[in-house]
Amino acid sequence: MSEPLHTVYVPRDAAALSVGADETAAAIRAEATRRGIPLRIVRNGSRGMLWIETLVEVETPEGRVAYGPVMAEDVAGLFDAGFLEGADHALAHGLTEKIPYFAKQERLTFARCGIIDPLSVEDYRLHGGFRGLERALAMTPAEIVTEVTESGLRGRGGAGFPTGIKWNTVLNAKADQKYICCNADEGDSGTFADRMIMEGDPFCLIEGMTIAAIAVGATEGYIYIRSEYPHAVATMREAIRLAYDEKWLGDEIHGTGHRFHLDVRVGAGAYICGEETSMLESLEGKRGTVRAKPPLPALEGLFGKPTVVNNVLSLTSVPIILDKGASYYRDFGVGRSRGTLAFQLAGNIKHGGIVEKAFGVTLHELLYEFGGGTITGRPIRAVQAGGPLGAYLPPSLFDLPKDYEAFAAVEAMVGHGGIVVFDDSVDMARQARFAMEFCAAESCGKCTPCRIGAVRGVEVMDRIIAGDKVAKNITLLNDLCEVMTDGSLCAMGGMTPIPVRSALKHFPEDFTRSPAAVAAE
Amino acid sequence: MNARSPWSEDRATAVIAANRHLRGALLPMLHALQEEFGCIDEEAIPLLARELNLSRADVHGVVSFYHEFRRSRPGRHTIKVCRAEACQSMNADGLIDHIRRRLKVDFHETTADDAFSLEPVFCLGNCALAPAVMVDETLHGRVSPARFDAITASTLATEAAR
């Protein structure tokens, strides 16, 4: 009798690759060959526990056992210890699903991410894939839209607009052509959930978009992925090809009369193209300048046709809603924030990664119970929540529950769920300056408050940092922020003041401590 | 390694034609040209304008809007360093200073020997393993100055031996 075939999982997620996952996989393959052990290596997505990447898992009768971080040089030792049987080792973490960071999560959107082979339709099906679509294929468009509306799903890209209401507008629009556009231009620092799910469970996005297409009567779709994500682009393209092969995309989706064609388009390094109208311009082959709204993209979107524009995490939440029903999803969460969000712990954090939890979890739980504090071991002084346009929050607000309304009440936003952690070495005046600098670099230039305001903002911050007439310049900065907030065409200029003002409000001491300012006192 | 083929009108025409069937084809065409030549040559502008029935100014406007499209050939290798907030929190600024000194090059520049182009980037999506650097198509996380030197050692040696 031959030895049983061992299965070992080594992630192919870009974050894992960035710390040597390919080298680790090659070392495992070579070591197994050297020892004459038959081995199957599956290149899965990431489980999202990024501080222990490369996280190698071994299939055992009890479940998958985790080892990490595994570098190529650790591999021989792991074989010696008997890791293929799940034996103990300095890098062992026991059963992956029992690791507290993972066990305490509520994985709905990311249910399959890190578990399956992302490019196996069969694996996807075995783990519940396409069940939502199959159910949708038997429903009327209005029933699908109702299901999504009743789930309480709100746009995960930042603005939090109810997804079902958007779909309903497109469904009711009369047109010869409608589109589904997935905004995968995830440019916010501190966010990587879109990238992770596109690399770890690409069929989930394809399924979500196909359900959206059937719901509103669209026959063409685009996924607009930022060029900084070459691995996600490659994985999505391959997954789309496989979905066509298996008739999950194309002219006749599984013998039903439904037609849906899907293509990937790649951005070109413009942050503003994450704004939906700017993304549509870019998809049309133009400069990514924002459009004035109205008209809403739902009525006049891509090429002037009714278009659903949804973020990756909104669309990847749709399959489970259709599979398990609206009430299943709605039962997670608090208030008007229903379901789960994949929070991303980033920056100076000991245990960085994805934490999918129902809304209502507090920053404190995320930062300390999951995140374990800073990696530098110094106290957390500030976090930026919701990307470069999100507020800087001090520890006094860490008890805030993650909920769209609770965050809005303190002039902050949940956004895309990214949380960037800074220790006490951070200079908040510098961070405020950076917010303006970023806006100046990334403004599309269409409206004056954003285009000129951001440049003036950098200049004013430079004077404050240099200690030049600080009180007067802070008044000027507040004025400028007001003009940008009230006068900008889109969120870029309109929300750049949020990090600036929150830094000023919660960390005023950083704005008045330049040598010149101190000397003048 | 970056593609850096010298300009060829025939090649460019073929690259453009291969993307002709796409709607909103200008960005895919620009990406394909840059993949072939390493940049968008001035000579490509009228070809694109003619193909898409646009003015040359329109095409120029699109090329210049996007940070990614270059107007001159890059070095043999491109190093992209993230300077967004998550990487800032892990001292990306210190890393950037180190890289500038080490390679004797600033952002948006190419080293004198044509080996490396250094580009800033806002977010590589590796924010839990900051600071992040991309060398050609390879992403690296937790990049300290020492790790940067280790990552680039073999490429630097190869380039020095040229």
TrEMBL record, chain B:
The keyword Transit peptide does not apply. Gene3D superfamilies: Glutaredoxin, NADH-quinone oxidoreductase subunit E. Keywords: 2Fe-2S, Iron, Iron-sulfur, Metal-binding. SUPFAM superfamilies: Thioredoxin-like (SSF52833). Pfam families: 2Fe-2S_thioredx. The keyword Metal-binding applies. Its cofactor is [2Fe-2S] cluster. Belongs to the complex I 24 kDa subunit family. This is Formate dehydrogenase subunit gamma. It comes from Azospirillum aestuarii.
